[in-house]
Amino acid sequence: MSGNVYDELKERGFVAQVSDEGAVRKILGEGQATFYVGFDSTATSLHAGSLVPIMAMVHIQRAGHRAIAVVGSGTTMVGDPSGKTEMRQMLDEATIRAQGQAIHIQLARYLHFDGKNAIAVDNADWLLPLNYVAFLRDIGRHFSVNRMLAAEAYKLRLEKGLSFIEFNYQLLQAYDYLTLFRKYGCTLQMGGDDQWGNILAGVDLIRRVDGGAAEALTFPLLTTASGAKMGKTAQGAVWLDATLFSPYDFYQYWVNCDDRDVGRFLRIFTLLPLDEVRRLESLKDSGINEAKRVLAYEATKITHGEVDAENARKAAAAVFGKVISGQGTIEAKSSFTGDAAVLPTTAVPRARLEAGISPAELFTEVGLTPSRREAKRLVEQGGLYVNDERIDTAERLLNVKDLGPDGGMLLQAGKKKFHRVVAG
Question: Whole-angstrom Cα distance, residue 329 to residue 318?
Fold first, then answer.
């Protein structure tokens, strides 16, 4: 392994396409380079799939280069058609700005914006004040409609219908790159592989307008070994915000990954040295569980911190009745045996508990089942429990009588999913 971080990115599986491999290796091997990744403000939180670009940024920043995270409040006003079969919902500016600020705060946990080694900017600052006619004359004239329509992002949408506002997205993203090239000397833009055409448009714009040299690198769009989209569960997205997806559930997402994904996920979603990754991915049979626990702990630590990662690990050990010692792990029954305080917990108004809540309603509300229909199906199959007792009928109401001495009620769906409810 050479000292160039580009080689590490390749070995870890971050590189899908690159405009000029020699040029990118040179950019990342000589002095401090400036690179950027954009994150549109489409929600209040990023999700586990967003960790692919985030982790790549962390690796490059740790190699001494300067990261620019672009919060895309401006481009979100238009909506990126890439990878979408239908037009995105149009949000008002106040909502987009608020979501952008939340994403900025979230990114700061990984990149530690100090103005020197990491910078956060919002493209609304230069996109929203644009004079449209002047923009078309100065920037739009450099774009070929024929070439744009040939791009995968637009070809997919042409079948369903592509709005004119979305057609402008590539121009705006290219203008972002030109702006960052001029202001910060940014010469490398990175993004998901569905952004390849948009990024190359920025490379071309910099060449045409300023005669400058800039490069593009994309990451693979990850799916799990089962074919599911990375960062998705039956309950929805694996959010990076602890209030939307608890650290315990985040830990469980990784520890329950497919055996075939462990090595790949260790390379991409942890900062472990590659020698250690190779050791872990070589483990067989029951040793794979050790690799999964390391993956889950390291990924949770990066996103939620060491304390929450340790609590999640302890909760997982308690949930599955496992005693971890220097000699290994001893399996026990699949029931909760530890401190319930480390479990994800939801406070429910006491008045609602006094009135009684159906299992279908409560299990769905706390996220243990994706729908009331699924909860009822699990009741019929004997798969829902309260305080280690099977719920035999969907008509049974959960109420204050189910609260234990510690003031909590333990809900269980299947063998692996637990949640604690307390009276609020």
Answer: 12
Structure tokens at 323: 């005693």
Helices (H) and strands (E) in the chain, counts: 20, 15
Pairing status of strand 215-219 against strand 188-192? parallel
Regarding predicted confidence, which is higher, 228 or 4? 4
Domains, in order of start, for the chain: 5-219 (3.40.50.620), 232-335 (1.10.240.10), 344-423 (3.10.290.10)
Which run of H or of E encompasses 207? Answer: helix 196-210
Judge whether 303 and 45 are in contact, CB under 8 Å.
no
First to last CA, the chain: 55
Q: Tell me: pLDDT of 244 over 60.
A: yes
Residue keyed to tokens 């995968």: 152
Handedness of CA 371, 375, 238, 10 (dihedral sign): negative
Confidence band of 79 (pLDDT split at 50, 70, 90): confident
Token duo for residue 412: 């269980």
pLDDT average, residue stretch 205-230? 92
Residue 81: the pLDDT is 63
- Residue 222, token pair as written in the block: 């990850």
Residue 329 confidence (pLDDT): 35
């699924």: which residue's tokens? Answer: 374
Strand arrangement, sheet containing 34-40: 17-18, 215-219, 188-192, 34-40, 66-72, 118-122
Q: How would residue 391 be classed by pLDDT, with cut points 50, 70 and 90?
A: very high
Q: What's the pTM value of the predicted model, to 2 decimals?
A: 0.80
Instruction: Label residues 85-117 b or e (16+ Cβ within 10 Å = b).
Output: eeeeeebeeeebbebbebbbebbeebbebeeee
Q: What is the DSSP string of 372-387?
A: HHHHHHHHHTT-EEET
DSSP for 61-103, written as a single string: HHTTPEEEEEEEHHHHTT---TT-SSPPPP--HHHHHHHHHHH
Q: Alpha helix locations (H) across 89-144?
A: 93-111, 124-127, 132-138
Q: Which residues face 189 on adjacent strands?
A: 36, 216
In this predicted structure, the answer to whether residue 319 has a pLDDT above a threshold of 50 is yes
C-alpha–C-alpha distance, residues 235 and 390, integer Å: 22
Q: Which of 79-88, 218-227, 232-241, 370-379 has the lowest mean pLDDT?
A: 79-88
